[in-house]
């Protein structure tokens, strides 16, 4: 049984005030959900988020980490630093990092190795662009990104994969549940071919304009194990409804 996982990727949003307001409603002591819940604020808000989530069922993750362990790498944050702070999770290879920061499959693989070594729980993002989908290359691209990141790594059971079609991110367009399911099944089959991975034990999340109104239908698909939520995770009410759709309070 794969426990549903709902993660909020807050991207470059928030102030100390908004982090406090949001977590007051999302991270409530004594409240537990069938789904595992994780929030990923900006680096500068991690400590505050960790403090506010203490004693609740909500975990905290970062949106990226360095592929290096330590050294003269100005502006970088290592996986060890995140673990030392108290973070459990890290998002890697998000399409915005690939697009705006030129992250290659090789770099994502190196970051994954660093995260696994530090015993962080990594979420590796994959997904095709609109042009790639229209050219019939969606599966090829997703397979390349997956294999590029995961092959030859140890400890793959800890890895979560997030399928985020680039054309669905922040656009209001969502893959239909059937389209998403097809790709999730393809991803699980690919995981089965990657040595060291047990595909039935690994969680594959969907991301791209997930909101309260479409979450239940997506989560109803057999290979969709939860969501990586962007915009809707900044609205406590929306986010709570998405978490509820993934399994509801226990
Ligand atoms: P939106 O939910 O805003 O489309 O963002 C998805 C995403 O990129 C999550 O990582």
Architecture blueprint of SSEs:
Blueprint: E1 5-9, H1 16-26, E2 36-40, H2 46-53, E3 58-62, H3 79-85, E4 89-92, H4 95-100, H5 105-117, E5 121-126, H6 130-134, H7 138-150, E6 160-163, H8 177-193, E7 204-207, H9 212-219, E8 226-229, H10 236-245
Helix pairs in contact: 1-2, 1-10, 5-7, 7-8, 9-10
The protein binds 1,3-dihydroxyacetonephosphate.
1,3-dihydroxyacetonephosphate binds next to strand 8.
Give the proportion of residues in helices. 25-40%
- What would CATH call the class? Alpha Beta
The biggest beta sheet reads:
8 strands, parallel, barrel
Quickly give the CATH architecture: Alpha-Beta Barrel
How far the N terminus sits from the C terminus, by CA atoms, comes to 16 Å
Query: How many structural domains does the protein architecture include?
Result: 1
What do you see in this structure?
This protein has 250 residues and is α/β, with parallel strands linked by helices. The protein is 39% helix and 15% strand. It has helices spanning 16-26, 46-53, 79-85, 95-100, 105-117, 130-134, 138-150, 177-193, 212-219, 236-245, and strands at residues 5-9, 36-40, 58-62, 89-92, 121-126, 160-163, 204-207, 226-229. It has an eight-stranded parallel β-barrel, surrounded by seven helices. The model has no long low-confidence stretch (mean pLDDT 95). 1,3-dihydroxyacetonephosphate binds at residues 9, 94, 164, 169-170, 207-210, 228-232.
């Amino acid at each position: 049984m794969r426990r549903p996982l709902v993660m909020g990727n807050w991207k470059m949003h928030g102030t100390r005030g908004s982090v406090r307001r949001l977590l007051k409603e999302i991270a409530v002591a004594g409240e537990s959900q069938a789904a595992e819940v994780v929030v990923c604020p900006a680096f500068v808000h991690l400590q505050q988020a960790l403090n506010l989530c203490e004693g609740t069922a909500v975990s905290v993750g970062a949106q990226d980490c360095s592929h290096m362990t330590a050294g003269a790498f100005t502006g970088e944050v290592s996986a060890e630093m995140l673990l030392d702070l108290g973070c459990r999770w890290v998002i890697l290879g998000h399409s915005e990092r690939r697009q705006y920061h030129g992250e290659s499959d090789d770099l994502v693989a190196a970051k994954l190795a660093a995260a696994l070594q530090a015993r962080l729980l990594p979420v590796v993002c994959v997904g095709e662009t609109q042009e790639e989908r229209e050219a019939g290359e969606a599966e090829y691209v997703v397979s390349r990104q997956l294999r590029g990141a995961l092959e030859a790594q140890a400890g793959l059971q800890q890895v979560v994969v997030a399928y985020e079609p680039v054309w669905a991110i922040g656009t209001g367009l969502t893959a239909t549940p059937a389209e998403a399911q097809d790709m999730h099944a393809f991803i699980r089959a690919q995981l089965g071919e990657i040595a060291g991975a047990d595909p039935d034990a690994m969680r594959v999340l969907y991301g791209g304009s997930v909101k309260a109104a479409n979450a239940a239908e997506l989560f109803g698909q057999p290979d969709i194990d939860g969501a990586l939520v962007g915009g809707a995770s900044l609205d406590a009410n929306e986010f709570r409804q998405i978490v509820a759709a993934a399994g509801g309070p226990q």
